[in-house]
């Protein structure tokens, strides 16, 4: 017990990001590409209520044509802030056999 107190709290890994979906592809399927009506509705919505966040699915001919994602710094900062402010505590569970 004394040894554990000297080592400090046990490291708990941060949760991993989910893998990107079809809408984040550089060649998304046609059902993920928005129409002009969808784009107008998308602009009127609150950013937190949008289906794919700040990302608007677009189709590119090849991977070299894809530009830099303009909101990457903001999203990375928000994730770091969430991880910093979120307490990660190891829960001790008792296994009691009746």
Task: Compute the number of strand runs.
Answer: 0
Q: Could you spell the SSE succession in H and E letters?
A: HHH
Taking all residues together, what is the mean pLDDT?
83
Terminal CA distance: 29 Å
**Major sheet characteristics:** none
Which of globular, elongated, flat, extended, rod-shaped describes the shape? elongated
Tally of DSSP helical segments: 3
Low-confidence stretches: none
Verbal overview:
0% of the residues are buried. Helices cover 30% and strands 0% of the residues. It has helices at residues 2-7, 36-44, 72-85. It has 98 residues and is mainly α. The chain has three helices and no strands.
Note the topology:
Layout lengths: L1 H6 L28 H9 L27 H14 L13
In short:
The chain is an all-alpha fold and 98 residues long. The chain contains three helices and no strands.
What are the main properties of this structure?
about 0% strand, mainly alpha, about 100 residues
